[in-house]
Amino acid sequence: MQLKTALLGSAILAALALVAGRTGAGIDTAPAGRAAATAAGSAANANAPQSVAAHHNTPLAALFAGTGARPGSDLVASSSGEAEADASPAATRARGLLQGAAGEQVHRVAADAFAARDVMVDRDGTEHVRMERSYHGLPVVGGDFVVHSQNGELKSISQGDNMRTTARPELQPKIGLEQAKIEAGANFDGQVRKIDNAGLVVFARGVEPTLAYQLELHGERRNDPLPGHITYFVDAGNGKLLQADDRVQTAASNGTGKTLLIGNVGIVTDSTSSGFRLVDPSRGNGSTYDAQGSMSYSTGFPGAPLFTDADNTWGNNATSDRATVAADAYYGVAATWDYYKNVHGRNGIFNDGNGVRSFVHVGNAYDNAFWYGSQKLMAYGDGSSFKPLVALDVAGHEMTHGVTEATARLGYYNIKDTGGLNEGISDIFGTLVEFSANNPNDPGDYLMGEKLVKNNPNGTSALRILFKQDADGRSKVCYPSGGFTASQTGQGGTFDPHFTSGVLNRVFYLASEGVVVPSGFSYTKAQLVCNNDTTIAGIGRNKVGAIMYRALTRYFVSSTTYPQARTWTLQAATDLYGANSAEYNALARVWTAVGVN
């Protein structure tokens, strides 16, 4: 657990038995396209190094000064791994609650079992225990939920719509494994390399709990260089494909990085007897490698060399030096680590103090960047239609996919609204990282990836415009009645997550800034809302970031829908600022302004 002892009060010592025994503490460019607008840009000095470390020495309390958070709502302890979470007294208490009324709420049956995957404790003693469910030892896909309690009493449970039943399937498959593999392979558009059997599961996303084979397919996609790793769930009774879950989600020595996109920056590297290397000892030994055009992501880019240097100056501000874009990516990872650590108290993507590996020069003129959770790595292409995809906000976006994977595990393709929420969360925190880094060569804005667009002198064309994402002609910014249809949320579909994220991105902008047209853009106020409510005032992006992080890590589950996101972000606002506070009321009004009620 990561324990912030300065925040402790005697009222929660019992809750912090949780930590007893411790001795120490892919952004997808293809769907989103180029959103055009007109505005005047500003030039900045590209030669003065900007140290990410210096900015992020700001104390946590100072970053949140004036936000008015409710006393007791701040985090004081959290698990650093699933084993620690499941063995904690907080998990034991949660399982005890599930023996009673809480069990009725999650439709528990006798053969259900529950394992804690994550535990978070607030200063007032409120415990948030994220649970995974199994049935007769089989994982229940979609059966996850979070138990919220205080002083041993249940406060609430956040869960999706999947397990509103006590029905459970028979556990004897009626088709064989080979037939299931044939079904999975037939649904993959490309060349199948191998299909691994991950075992039988109970599948409960959008269907009654159903016995299914979980199959991990690896291969090469047709006409798409994006890594091919898809999890297929095949009905073990009739061989019907239940869901395809794409596993690739897109987008202590002081050195100088001569980056491509933001000029010269200060970075922290590792000093060795023979020189320096792009390993950051101050941030969990995160490291950066040269993929040398490889796409062998599934095996972790074997043989890719770690970037090393003799004088601790990396790159030359141009692509003629392979270390240039490595410096961009390295800086972005450091800025993202520092944002999560200093603002939210999170010690790395998985809250375990470990950094991640980054690989630049991935593929041949590859126009994408992605987070690949199975290998815990980030990959950046050199671009073709775009510049190398190593922008600061893109790094924040991709690493946030990892944070989401470590917490709520929001689904992606083929799961109603959830993929859009997943993408929107990454856009939001990628944006907050950019604001937090406060680099004059890449000042914070509500544009995602504007630094990647070629021939963009005003800096107003971008991969996504958070306040008007439908400027691309495809994205959705107003939530439709009944939500986004799951069958149309596949890659490139009408409701691809990169299109439906526009709803959450608009929520973030309106809640942060209000109905204000950014300088230089010609939109009307009415074009920024879906209901003509043009007098909404913002509460500030730091407060919105705090609300979104709390909702993601404490309340969201793998199948959260947009209406549920409204419910749980408002609960998070209540936790932080109080019921019917100005923050709560403003956020509720914003959700209504995008059609989510």
Structural overview:
The chain is an alpha+beta fold and 597 residues long. Among the domains are: 5-25 and 63-159; 177-237, no CATH class. Helix content is 26%, strand content 22%. The protein has 14 helices and 24 strands. It has helices at 29-32, 52-55, 60-63, 82-86, 89-97, 101-105, 177-186, 323-344, 392-406, 418-437, 497-513, 541-555, 562-577, 582-593, and strands at 50-51, 75-78, 112-122, 127-135, 138-141, 145-150, 153-159, 190-203, 210-221, 227-235, 241-246, 248-249, 253-258, 264-272, 275-277, 279-280, 286-290, 308-309, 313-314, 357-362, 369-372, 377-381, 447-448, 464-465. Strands 2, 3, 4, 5, 6, 7, 8, 9, 10 and 11 form a 10-stranded mixed beta sheet that branches. Strands 1, 13, 14, 15, 18 and 19 form a 6-stranded mixed beta sheet that branches. The protein has a 6-stranded mixed beta sheet with strand order 12-21-22-20-17-16, covered by helices on one side. A hairpin with a 4-residue loop joins β21 and β22. α8 crosses α10 and α10 (418-437) packs across α12. It is globular, with a radius of gyration of 23 Å. The relative contact order is 0.13.
